[in-house]
Batch of 3 targets.
Target 1
Amino acid sequence: MTQEQCTHRNNVQSSDKPQVYKVGIYGWRKRCLYFFVLLLMILILINLALTIWILKVMNFTIDGMGTLRITEKGLKLEGDSEFLKPLYAKEIQSKPGKPLLLQSSRNVSVNIVNSNNQLLTQLVTGSGGFKARGKMFEVKSTSGKLLFSADEQEVVVGAERLRVTGAEGAVFSKSVETPHVRAEPFKELRLESPTRSLMMEAPKGIQILAEAGDIQAICRNELRLESKDGEISLDARRIRLMRLPEGKASASSSSSGTRQTVYEVCVCPNGRLFLSQAGTGSTCQISNSVCV
């Protein structure tokens, strides 16, 4: 075998051996990869620690979060709660035996709307006062008895007694209809109209009764007692007509002698009363100078 053939054979045998290639990251790339993996692990641990801390601070449990508990009947809040946005609930109630407090720095409004979002009833409590808007307003007792109601037509007071404790009493700009007006025991009842007239009307009659005191009717101009179909009766043991004018008889009809102290009450055709000195007969005709 020649030398050229041996060389060719060696080349063929060396070419049949498998070649080995190195696979991997070496040098600074390997160190950067380890650094990023370590940094990621540190971030995961910090995130896990923060999550556990938030769960601990917010008191997250299986039943709820903090003072909020999820029960079969709904949500249960223990303690004070603050809502920054509207709260929609079907029913809000307190614990048994505990009061329900609604507190706001401005006002508390309760609105009832229909399906078209139109306001039907509104209740507003604020610094300016208490306002209610609706077709009817009612106040009832624990037994269900009507105490007060108001609508566009009338206002009804269903209590057995209406008490007005103001110093000026009750002021009515128009008529008042009531079957009975009385004062408290040992208190006086005053019906007064400082600048206008006071009128009392009834289809069957008006009864003014004071069982333990006096009755006074005082006016500036005229006091009129009028009965169209019946009569006016003054039933008392003593009737006093104060400050009646005294009629003066003419000189021809005046009796001589001492001045008499007995008088008779006379009535003029216009209804005016006056006094006249009593005589053997009626002296109203001769002492009617008051009627002129």
Target 2
Amino acid sequence: MATMSDTAPMLGQSRRSGSKTIHPASLESPSPAAAPFREVKHFKKWFPWLIPTFVVANIVMFVISMYVNNCPKNSISCVARFLGRFSFQPFKENPLLGPSSSALLKMGALDVSKVVDKHQGWRLITCMWLHGGLFHLLANMLSLIVIGIRLEQEFGFVRVGFLYLISGLGGSLLSALFIQSNISVGASGALFGLLGGMLAELIVNWTIYANKLAALFTLVIIIAINLAVGILPHVDNFAHIGGFLSGFLLGFVFLIRPHFGWVNRRYGPAGHPSQSSSAKFKTYQYVLWVLSLILLVVGFTVGMVLLLRGVDLNDHCSWCHYLSCVPTSRWSCNTEPISCQAVSIGNEYTLTCSNNGRNGTYSLFNPSQSQIQGLCAELCR
């Protein structure tokens, strides 16, 4: 990861009683006792509480999703049936150990048709707090703890909170413009927004970092690997890309820091002569701030207009679908909606998958639509 806690060579760390407060490095002065240091608020460590709260919220929402799913009632077979209504859908239906698609839809998963036709725009936000399964949840929450807590310690809960939420919205928006046949859930867009914000922070605060190129190279490699994983099937890489681009631009807006020359002049020992510039920020920092804010406003406005008009960007970009999934001999990128034809004779139900022609016969007594849909999913996958 980028060395976010590394400060400029001119900044030192207090050693008094193990304090983690960061102060300007000692400047030569006649009497240290007569020129006490003042805390540099722009570099102080914050206590992280918001990111852990987000983690707890995501876990709670997953538990509620499993309660609503109630696999024993709506499916013929369940994984870990001893968990009762918290048991998981069959592997063929959901290999991530989680609820059914219908349960996720009830909880607020992103469904473009419902956003456009039924004006349920709130799904762009609620989908960020849902996960497709236990594996999905664990992967995202571990990443959020590693990345998010570090950022919150450096920049505080307000800026990191806005960065997380707006990036998540950006990821949902781009996903909705490209993937319109499936539902989408997960905090991945917001997580990639934090990665994008880290990259922007490194660039906009370039002058305060030691080992700049090493930090930049490490962060770029991490981002590239994560985006590369997104070309696998059943992974919404458009949410990753949208979240990353949003977070990258937001980083120039929220994570800007004054250059250390200004910090030394303002917080250095009293009476110490300084030849540093009086400007708080460099010119390039102001330029990046303005350009990023303009691009964010324009991007979100255009994206929302296109979404509400029902535009599918795949119609205007024949190759863009490869950004989310690259077909190989080992997997398919087919996202055709699953459907089955059902014929019943008494308690015998014969289902035929419309996608692959497979059929199966089941003994069911007054089955619910969710049970039939679950069996259909097993046939078609």
Target 3
Amino acid sequence: MAENLMAIAYENGVNLFDTAEVYASGRAEITLGNIIKKKGWRRSSFVITTKIYWGGQAETERGLSRKHIIEGLRGSLSRLQLDYVDIVFANRNDVNSPMEEIVRAMTFVINQGMAMYWGTSRWSAMEIMEAYSVARQFNLIPPVCEQAEYHYFQRDKVEVQLPELYHKIGVGAMTWSPLACGLITGKYSDGVPECSRAAMKGYQWLKERVNSEEGRRQLAKIKELHLLADRLGCTAAQLAIAWCLRSEGVSSVLLGVSTADQLLENLGALRILSQMTPQTITEIDALLGNKPHSKKELRA
């Protein structure tokens, strides 16, 4: 299934595949590496990104120490059967590692040819700015990208904080969870289906979120967004993904899919990108009622 999905994605112009050392305890990287090798695609024709933080059971196999960044990335490259990844992400900040150590280690793995660039995932704007300042101070390599959660109900960081960094230091956003763990598709409108993610072991938090008062309010808004999607001639998922893509500074939207139909439906979001007019965006903002205000607007 993974091979089939990657082939469809690649043939439809998707050129970035994202993974992490922690996904399925390293098995995700092994699967991805095997598929790339089997397909024989030109290495220069696609982008591979991985994330370092949770490596193994030992205390020394996690975090962002120089030791774990270098050893963790070596482990990832071995599982991926690649000479380098295009971007290595720090998969959350590590309060136990000094920022200078993190930036120096990331610069080292880039200089060694193990990665082309480095980025951050789930870092605050202040932490990213600190990494940038350290890089400039010591002539090291600054991060280029932040992986951030972004969907209808999670907007502040990508719409208010990151654009400032985008304009000041050129940090782009690679966003994840455009469908809010499936909530936006409407599959939870009548409760939690047995085969859904919220019914799986370890996803109790998602089930609680769906059943909470806030979750019910969000589901009511999702029903209205479904009507808007019908009017635009697309699915709720396509509307949600196109809405993410239209945002300034969003370089790419990460999709997680489990079937070919789901992937093809999600890719259809590109067709309706042209319909993301100021009028449509205003209508969506009015429905959601949660548009964050930028500092400029607040000052005005």
